[in-house]
Amino acid sequence: MRVARFRLPYNQKFEDVVKMRIAIQGEPGAFSHEAALRLVPEATIVNCSFSPEVFQRVVDRDADAAVIPIENSLAGSVVEHYDLLLTHDVAVERETLLGIHHNLIVVPGTTVEQVHRVYSHPVALAQCRRFFARHPHIEPVPYYDTAGSVKQLMELRDRTCGAIASAQAAAHYGGEILAPNLEDDAENYTRFFLIRRLEDVQLNAEADKVSLAFQVENRPGTLVGALQAFASQGINLTKIESRPVHGRPWQYVFYTDYQLASPESAEKALRLLAEHCSMVKELGRYRAARIEA
């Protein structure tokens, strides 16, 4: 059984890099773009078409770091990103919470009566159902990316179409926000991780949260024993979910977040956890993000 931890010392600071290259999945103006600039304001954004490319850019040093969405407060976890965290030699360094505000974006001068189709990512469309109920003449059309839908709109200059995306996407492509804040639930947040290669991760002395993956032995009571390892140290689990192991039907990896009481309790919990697990990998120790006013 292996237990993966961070390697020390860490050898690079954000302040040492004039312009960090941050890989994201999506077009310029995507919510990941906004989150990346919040985490590293002077970053150079490296846009990628697919999530595996984002991780590979970091591993190959074609990017210094990546910013990935990991969980939405309404839609749940981005399960592909959990799988990629497990299989790549990277770790979480920081996190942020981004309020998600969806806007109807059109070619400047367009009226809502002219619009008959609105493009966006399926998750964004699903979070704006009340808008479509109020405007039955408008058809929601799934598209691969929120910002990409604005890019397409402004290239075609089609006044019968609109897009749902961020204010940053509207500004980037020159679109007009016809209707702001379309989201059904104002308390809509996405949690983003900043990830780096293991040897580049900066350990925060104020870290109070840990993300962890583990796989239990296939025998009775192992999951209970694994959870008891946390309870025995007074560790509060704030999240746990399972994912299937690829190529091994009916076997699962458990992903957990927990509050870090102290470095000593975390190390002892890892040792106790190892007694019940075939694999344990710490995905990151970082300071928990708070919702900004």
Report on the structure:
The chain is of the alpha/beta class and 293 residues long. It has 3 domains: 20-99 and 188-200, D-Maltodextrin-Binding Protein, domain 2; 103-179, Periplasmic binding protein-like II (D-Maltodextrin-Binding Protein, domain 2), CATH 3.40.190.10; 209-284, ACT domain (Alpha-Beta Plaits, 2-Layer Sandwich), CATH 3.30.70. 27% of the residues lie in helices and 33% in strands. It has helices at residues 31-39, 51-59, 79-87, 122-126, 129-134, 146-156, 167-173, 222-231, 263-274; strands at 2-4, 21-25, 44-48, 65-72, 76-77, 90-99, 103-106, 117-120, 139-142, 161-165, 176-179, 189-197, 209-216, 237-244, 252-259, 277-286. Strands 2, 3, 4, 5, 6 and 12 form a 6-stranded mixed sheet that branches. Helix 8 (222-231) runs antiparallel to helix 9 (263-274).
Task: Please tag this protein with its features.
single chain; 293 residues; alpha/beta; D-Maltodextrin-Binding Protein, domain 2; Alpha-Beta Plaits; 6-stranded mixed β-sheet; 16 strands; 27% helix; elongated
